[in-house]
Amino acid sequence: MLKVGLTGGLASGKSYVSALLEKLGCHVIQADRLGHDALRRGAEAFEDVLAEFGVEILGDDGEIDRKVLGAIVFPAPEKLAKLNALVHPHIFQRQQEFFQQVLRADPEGIAVVEAAIMIESGSHTGYDRLILVVCPEDVQIRRFVERGGTEAEARDRLARQLPLDEKRKFADFVIDTSGTFEETEKQVRDVYEHLKQGMG
């Protein structure tokens, strides 16, 4: 089994690339989704996060409202660091379970974990290959705003992420999503073929 990390900046097209890799036959999981699962009522991180940030983060359904939580932590680096410290160990544990499942089901398979701050957190060192998804900053901001965010929020988040040029130093493969869907798909197929060769 080949363990592959997939990362990139804000709104760079990571999810689109991971969906293409899944279609090609990779086993894919998103760290964001694992984090959401760990925050659900009754899950591993729920009580600790509630104790740290208070009942005001709860929605009407009794679940943690991630938008409310995000509005608290993203403008305050120390609060974001505290949240990450509470949630990331559970994400890591769930990732290990994912790898074990893939290994049992498809020993020759390619297991891909998509995560935004993989390099910043240092977790990129746990993968056999690292794919970086990139596009120009103005494209990142436009996509983020199109998804309902503001330009100020986008610039604030970008300022806290390692610049893409720095991330390139760690990547085995770089996929640029600023062109057409077809151009991106061709790059993804090329990377997939290289990953398959790496299994040999």
Characterise this structure.
The structure is a single chain. The chain is α/β, with parallel strands linked by helices and 200 residues long. It folds into 2 domains: 1-26 and 109-200, Rossmann fold (3-Layer(aba) Sandwich), CATH 3.40.50.300; 32-107, 3-Layer(aba) Sandwich (Rossmann fold). It contains 10 helices and 5 strands. Helix 1 crosses helix 10 and helix 2 crosses helix 5.
SSE layout and pairing:
Blueprint: E1 2-8, H1 14-24, E2 27-30, H2 31-39, H3 46-53, H4 66-73, H5 77-105, E3 110-114, H6 118-121, E4 129-134, H7 137-146, H8 151-160, H9 164-167, E5 173-176, H10 181-198
Parallel strand pairs: 1-3, 1-4, 2-3, 4-5
- Strand order, main sheet: write it out: 2-3-1-4-5
CATH superfamily of the largest domain: P-loop containing nucleotide triphosphate hydrolases
- Identify the quaternary structure here: single chain
What is the CATH-assigned architecture of the largest domain?
3-Layer(aba) Sandwich
The biggest sheet, with number of strands, parallel, antiparallel or mixed sense and barrel status, is: 5 strands, parallel
The radius of gyration is: 17 Å
Bin the helical content. Answer: 55-70%
Mean pLDDT score, rounded?
93
Structural class: alpha/beta
